[in-house]
Amino acid sequence: MSPAVPRRHLLLMLAAVTGPRVVRAQAATTDMLLQAVILRAGMERLVKLELEHRVLKQDRARLAAEKERQRLQRAMEALSAPIKGLTGRREAQVQRAVLDAGDLLANLGQPVAALVGASEALAARLGFVTTTLSGVATDPDRATLIDLLARASATALRLGKFNFAALVASAASSDVSVSAQQVSGEFRAALEAVAAQNLDERGRADLKLAQNQWLLLSHALGPTGLAKSPERLAEVATTTDRIAESMLALARRV
How remote is the C-alpha of 143 from its chain's centroid? Predict the structure, then answer.
């Protein structure tokens, strides 16, 4: 019969065995959350780029959309795998959101009202996905920050989307104006919330870049959240992209 193992030694042995497993589980959960963040922001960007191309008819939007589509397809493939920590019902909701993203990806050429409506419905579902995944992460503070950065990134792109939707629809309708104004306020709140976080030096640099881009963007927008003139739309296109990319870069590093 083997001699009894002292309790202290037993606990150390268990820690040695289970420690790496916990780290792997955490990494897997965080990776899924990051893929969901990429999908959430990327779908907004792709819709914005589609509308941007209809308005500005520039190669920039077309080429950027091709790259974004590839990144989104990889994210959807990753999110199709089983996700640890989710109940069957929650996982089914995540999978449904991924399928809805695929449907929208295949139907970007639809009329502007239908496209914007579908993308707004998807935005709500993907927001639920990132919040759900952050809720099962083993590092809740980090996951909450990543979810916040996802919201900031996606909201900046939504603001760009509404600006181009207004012009594609040939009129800045009251609905689009109200939406743009609301989203502008949501982005300011998200950016302020990010600024209140305890970020490292590189994180502060990403935040500063986003804040500078927001300053440029706000000068191009009127009180309704829409561009002061059609000539400012190219500026709206690039600044919203840069803001979103800064937030995503920060999300990958936190």
Answer: 13
| CA pair distance 140, 137, nearest whole angstrom | 6
Q: What is the dihedral of CA 60, 63, 65, 70, to 10 degrees?
A: -150
The string of pLDDT tens digits covering residues 13-31 is: 333 433 443 333 434 678 9
Type of residue numbered 47: V
C-alpha separations of 247 from 55, 111, 221, 222 in Å: 26, 30, 21, 24
Average pLDDT, the chain: 87
Question: What residues have CB less than 8 Å from 106, skipping those under 6 apart?
Answer: none
> Which residues of the chain register pLDDT less than 70?
1-28, 170-175
Segments making up each domain of the chain, as ranges:
22-253
pTM for the whole structure: 0.85
Residue type present at position 237:
A
Q: Round to whole Å and give the CA distance between 222 and 57.
A: 23
Longest dimension (CA), the chain: 85
Helix and strand totals (H; E) in the chain: 8, 0
Grouping H, G, I as helix, E, B as strand and the rest as coil, residue 50 is helix
User: Residue 28: what pLDDT?
Assistant: 61
pLDDT digits (tens, 9 = 90+) for 160-183: 999 999 988 754 455 677 789 999
